[in-house]
Amino acid sequence: MIKKSVYQSAYAAAVLFAIAGQTYAADGWKLRFPLAGSLGGEIAAKQLTPGLYGSVVATQIEVDKVTGGDGNALTLTQANAFSQAVTSPPSPIAMTVSSSFSGSATVAVKQSQTVSNILLGYLTETEYAGGRLNFLVNIPYMSLNRTFAVSGPTPTLAPLSSSVPGPQAAAVTAGLQTTIQGQFALRYQAQLAANSTAASGSAAGVGDIEVTGAWVQEKENMRMVVGATLAMPTGQYDKNSQLNVGFGNYYTLRPGVAVSTRPTDKLTLGARGSLGFNSPNSDNGVRTGNYWALDLAAAYLTPIGVFGPHLLQVTQYDDDQGGTFGANRFSATGAGLFYATLIQPINAGLNFSYMTILNSRNALSGSFVQVRLSKAF
Question: How confident is the model at residue 164 (pLDDT cuts 50, 70, 90)?
Answer without folding.
Answer: confident
